[in-house]
Design goal:
This protein is mostly helical. The chain is built from eight helices and no strands.
């Protein structure tokens, strides 16, 4: 049993290492870039009769060409990892059944816990980003996701693995909820569709 648990930890380490490397890259890119910032939007239906007034335009941001595409790459890596972690575990369900010696109905919660956590937090995370700033919250989510990935790789029992998957999903929900918003704020109108299309291919 101890040997199986050790092999399971070793097999999960590559994903944890990738997450750590991505965290370092995105921390440098996003933290030092002044163009990714919090933008507070005001409502456009303030008239008592609910007749829409002139909609406030999103502020134009004009970072250099190289820098904005690097931002897209860094954010895209985070969204890609958060998305792929939701389904890639399905490939290893039989391996987890053998390694942890638990029935499939228990092992399935490794996937279900991740998906349910993301689904329940996405809406509130978006609102929280509007309140406290997207960049700060995105970096916190990246740290949570990275830490959760490491802990999942080191978990010795299926129950710890499920618990760490919930923790990891908290960070993933932040990455998925705020990644698109940050790309939208970074690119000007004429390039925003292209940037969002590229980001969508990673999802």
């Amino acid at each position: 049993a101890a040997g199986r648990a050790m092999r399971s930890r070793i097999s999960n380490l590559p994903a944890a290492v990738i997450s750590i490397l991505h965290f370092q890259i995105l921390l440098i890119v996003v933290e030092k870039n002044p163009d990714v910032k919090h933008v507070k939007f005001s409502g456009c239906y303030n008239h008592p009769t609910l007749i829409p007034e002139k909609r406030e335009r999103m502020p134009e941001v004009n970072p250099s060409n190289n820098r904005k595409w690097i931002i897209l790459l860094a954010i895209g890596m985070g969204v890609f990892l958060a998305t792929i972690d939701g389904g890639i575990v399905n490939i290893g369900l039989n391996t987890l059944v053998n390694e942890f010696d638990k029935p499939l109905v228990v092992i399935e919660w490794v996937v279900l816990a991740y998906m349910l956590t993301i689904s329940s937090l996405m809406l509130s995370i978006g609102r929280l980003g509007d309140m406290i700033g997207k960049k700060r919250l995105y970096l916190a989510g990246l740290a949570i996701f990275t830490t959760g990935s490491v802990l999942c790789g080191l978990s010795g029992t299926i129950y710890w693995l499920i618990a760490f998957r919930v923790f990891q999903a908290v960070g993933a929900s932040i990455l998925m909820a705020l990644g698109t918003a940050m790309v939208t704020e970074t690119f000007p109108d004429r390039e925003r569709g292209k940037a969002l299309g590229i980001l969508g291919t990673l999802v």
